[in-house]
Amino acid sequence: MVALIVGMSIAAILMSAAMPVWSQMARREKEAELIFRGQQYARAIGLFQRKAGPGVLPPNLDVLVEQRFLRKKYKDPITGKDFAVVSALRAATNQSGGGAGPGAPSRGTVDNSPNASGNRVAGGVMGVASTSTAESLRTYNGATHYDEWQFVYVQQTQAPGGQAGPAGQRGSGPPGARGGDQGLGRQGNNPFVPSGRGATR
Description:
Blueprint (H helix, E strand, L loop, with lengths): L1 H51 L8 H6 L17 E7 L1 H4 L12 E4 L13 E5 L5 E6 L2 E3 L4 E3 L46 E2 L1
Antiparallel strand pairs: 1-2, 1-3, 3-6, 4-5, 4-7
């Protein structure tokens, strides 16, 4: 009887020690899934532009599914709800000259109102973002909160001399991005990159 009680006590201690580790692993998996789903939206917007024309943005996320650029409307894995829509309207900080540096894509205005993803968005949809305001485990694009992670399609432009990017800059995407693939940004093996430098652990 005493051995059973001791064994149960040890098991309870081990479980309590393992819970934080398991919880952190689960959050890391959700963060990885958030990046994957966000990049799927960015990729779909790029495919939409290939068909509709450079600079033409989808009016809402439903169009991406209806025209088969996106397999389905993914949910935000952090909240289990719809993603917030990143509008092409520039944020006030970017209009006043703040925000991203030269060659970096401008951040859009996030609309997380109900049914925003299905309604027509002023200026068009340039990407998606999480609606969770919780602090993230990893830093993504210099941001430490999930709602600051914006997944935006970055289009490369071909400048004279074979260099991609606006005004002769190499790439309009994140640092380390390369030109190519019919004017699409490329980072590693993924031709569709989110806004910023990418995820770091």
